[in-house]
Amino acid sequence: MDMLHTILNFLLPLLTISFLVLFYPFYLLIKLASCLIKHLRFEDVAGKVVLITGASSGIGEHVAYEYAKKGTKLALVARRKDRLEIVAETSRQLGSGDVIIIPGDVSNVEDCKKFIDETIHHFGKLDHLINNAGVPQTVIFEDFTQIQDANSIMASKAALVKFFETLRVEISPDIKITIALPGFISTDMTTPQFKEMYGSDFILSESVSRCAKAIFRGIGRGEAYVIEPSWIKWIFLIKNVCPEIVDYLLDYIFVSYLKPYFKRD
């Protein structure tokens, strides 16, 4: 068995290098052509029915506005009915021909069934489902009081992405799934939290309207993932090539510039 591992340790690096030299340039050309096609081909969503959870504020609210500008029909879901009514009226003014609001809580299974049933009953169909509702959590390790809090947050995020990646395989090509991975976004949930805890908004926060536009474009192009701010994906790419350098730079930036935002009293 040890001999087999020795052989594989010798052969696989050679095969990998050969693959990169011979085939990777062609893969990049195919990837470039695919990106160009996606940028030129955008889904016409006029008249389509879109259900958005967490639509009373933040990313969900602004994604609703992007859809409204294109003439979609909207079903807006959130717990705050008064805020939903404001978002619905703004969506109508932006161009949405028909907007309904459905107050409820996505953590309640019966409410989730109600969202879908009422949307289909009113519109007769459902074209896009935007699962946006959520709660932000930005904490460094030393601020956790219970280790299970950290486990719950990290496990939930990872499990959610893996769940939709698996679901994408099962229901493709009939239904497409775009996974949005937003970074620090300035919303009325995150910005007040940062100002209260750290004295100011996060220096690298992106505006919620910019983030919503990127998510809407990604959905329209059929992207598998939308990472916003978009520069974050280049960090991931570089990290795969030279992880030590990226780890050093991220550590330096965090300690020198970002950690003060997480100061404790």
From TrEMBL:
InterPro entries named in the record: SDR_fam
Topology class, membrane: Single-pass type II membrane protein
Spans traversing the lipid bilayer: 6-30
Subcellular localization, as worded in the UniProt entry: Membrane
Any matching Pfam family: adh_short
One GO process term, biological-process aspect: steroid biosynthetic process
UniProt KW keywords: Lipid biosynthesis, Lipid metabolism, Membrane, NADP, Oxidoreductase, Signal-anchor, Steroid biosynthesis, Transmembrane, Transmembrane helix
Keyword Oxidoreductase among UniProt keywords: yes
One GO term describing the cellular component: membrane
Domain of life, per lineage: Eukaryota
Molecular function via GO: oxidoreductase activity
Chief location: membrane
Family note: Belongs to the short-chain dehydrogenases/reductases (SDR) family.
UniProt protein name: Short-chain dehydrogenase/reductase SDR
Organism of origin: Arabidopsis thaliana x Arabidopsis arenosa
